Amino acid sequence: MDIETQPPRAAHRIGIDLGGTKTEVVVLDARGDTVLRQRRPTPADRGYTAIIENVADLIRQAETRIPEGKTATVGIGIPGSVRPVAGLVQNANTTCLIGRPLQQDLEALLERPVVVDNDANCFTLAESLAGAGKGYDLVFGVIMGTGCGGGLFMNGRVRVGPHAIAGEWGHFVADPGGARCYCGNRGCVETLISGGGVQRRFFEDTGRRLSMPDIVSGARCGDTDCRRAFDRFLDDFGRCLGGLISILDPDAVVLGGGLSHIDALYDAGAQRARRCAFGKGIRTPILKNRLGDSAGVIGAAWIGASPPVQSA
Q: Based on the domain organization, do 109 and 150 belong to the same domain?
């Protein structure tokens, strides 16, 4: 399965970016201009029912901004994917979503159709059509934040795949002896280079509980523990991304998520990635996103109007 990626021409589009800590809604008009953008905390600590009711309430609020007589599509990006045929959420780092019929439950609550897809696919779609990846044929989009995900844009489409796992680079096993991941494997890319993974390893090594921003700041200020952890983070980033470049040989890689603001990823990190890739003279651009926090929710709005279609 792939996702059609021409920006759709529906009268209005509603997009939801459902994250582990925040949920955001956007309303785009026929010209693509933002009519409404709002975010609120995700009630993940209160479980599945609270999460879908929160999403449904945001969509209802968004619908009040649709002019009378006009219709709107709804797309939702989630930190996981929907298993084909069964229609159940899989591989979500907001684990209370796993095994739940999220799309069906929301459609029942709202009495309208919605489209659900992976948040990294939404990010990759938006950045490939209107952001840093625009003009490149094959783009790999990376989200590095609390977790780590990826999406693959190729031949004018976002690739979903028959198991809805295309681009799930965050769960490639990079260190079989590493930390256990929520997915059940050990040493996934996510355990090595996500903010959550780096923080956990830092605590295990030092006994100090620091956030990823604090670790980065400490490294800049000369803290020995932080410098060691940050250098290992860059090494892991280079090794993991270098392997991906060797497999896909993409025209460009676009980074998103909270960790994409770390400047060192685009010089020292990029150098290590190119050094770890197969061959000499690797020049793959590793780019910072241009749409910022808007990418995921805008991509969700577009996906809502252009749902996944079966690949030929």
A: no
Do 114 and 167 lie in one domain? The reply is: no
* Cβ count near 48 (within 10 Å): 19
Q: What share of the chain is helix, strand, coil (3-state, %, to 5)?
A: 40, 25, 35
Parent domain of 139: 132-288
Residue-wise pLDDT tens digits, 249-289: 999 999 999 999 999 999 999 999 999 999 889 999 999 99
In a shared domain, residues 113 and 143: no
- Burial, 195: exposed, middle or buried (Cβ in 10 Å; 0-12, 13-18, 19+)? buried
Q: Is residue 59 part of a domain?
A: yes
Largest CA distance in the chain: 62
Q: For helices 224-248 and 268-276, what crossing angle results, to 10°? A: 50
Question: What are the angstrom distances between the C-alpha of 272 and each of 74, 156, 228, 249, 283?
Answer: 40, 29, 16, 16, 12
Whether the predicted model's global pTM rises above the 0.70 cut: yes
> Using an 8 Å Cβ cutoff, are 237 and 193 in contact?
yes
**CATH number for the domain that contains residue 85:** 3.30.420.40
Model confidence over 95-112: pLDDT tens digits? 999 999 999 999 999 999
Query: Same domain for 267 and 298?
Result: no
